[in-house]
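WP5 quarterly update. Target: Stage 0 sporulation protein A homolog. Source organism: Desulfosporosinus nitroreducens. Length: 448 aa.
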Amino acid sequence: MIPRILVIDDEERMCWALERALSHEGYQVVTATRGLQGIEMALETEPSTVILDLKMPDIDGIEVLKKLKSINPKIPVIMITAHGTIETAIEAMKIGATDYITKPFKLDELKVQVKQALHLSNLENEVNFLRQELGKKYGKMIGQSDAIKEVILLIQQVAKTNATVLITGESGTGKEVAAVEIHKASNRANMPFVAVNCAALPEQLLESELFGHEKGAFTGATNRKKGRFEMADKGTILLDEIGDMPISMQVKLLRVLQERCFERVGGTETIQIDVRVIATTNSELSASISKGTFREDLYYRLNVMQIKMPPLRLRKEDIPLLVNHFLEKFDPSHTKKISPDAMKILTRYDWPGNIRELQNAIERPLIVCQNNEILPVHLPSELLDNLKETSEPIINLPEAGFSLEELEKRLFIKALEKNNYNQTKTAKYLGISRPTLLYRMNKHGLKF
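Structure tokens (predicted):
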């Protein structure tokens, strides 16, 4: 999107000169010769930056600045002032002005200030966007079980340090979420969080992705590229699935962890970095060391602090909380709720895919469920199949014996009552066909 500059100055010639000069720089420029008019135009045009004269005939420039900041606190405002009002300009900066320039000034000087103001504004917008995306992509730690409380405590303790962290656990247990929580709770929270999946890229691409490359370093390297380590400077880098990193890359990573420096692929310049490293793995690195596929010295460099994420089957009391979280995420208008019977099935399942599988199991019913309550029938078939395999019916046997036919009759009556006498639902509930149900009902003289 082309940046839009709003110029508010009572001198028409100044407005004309700035509009012409800034338009040549590729900006859209709108002008106002009165303060109140400028406020109205700010509301209408939503400018990227405002250039505001401190002295206006109808309303003081400071008042215009206050109004602009009330409309959009983030908008960059450059004040134009005369030599005798520099103190006032400084006061304007305390209120929220980005910069000021004194008359007479060179257009090139103002162009630089505009470019800097836009750059800072873009960076702030990018940071806000990335923070929102972190929340969308990785979510947050949810749970009240002892297992997850222990993890949260470890996160709080290690976040206060700059120690390297190794997060282990099965796939889908929330290792990436834990990494984000460490970053958000650290003194690097306002700096970049950069993630790279070590298992997703071949060796040559992974090296370029981590350390960057110089122009001409290899075929297709038409420009210099910054690597993820360089992008994460002063922040945090997440090395996801570190156990799948090629052994030759492990040597290069070890040097970065030891010396906090590297060279881009095809380059000679040594780049110093200040980066907090968090690595995750779902494999047993000790077994990989024995096989010779993972370096022991790298393991000890990474394993300064280890956090083990518990599988969902060991924290089943957290399932209702997670289910409600995913319902909120996928159905923010709260049009659907989960039935008690469906919740029972969710809490009995062992979840081999952990939280990721649970998330998918909630998203699917929201698509197929046509009413406002998610029932067992809406859940994925593997959950229902598992329930059939593992569930044992509870039968209270009378002391004086019983008739098998009478027991079957009572079973059918209870099943029909439970399903509001809907024969199709009752047949599905009992795991039989509808004709079989009708035959059995007729046999026992059941007519509803």
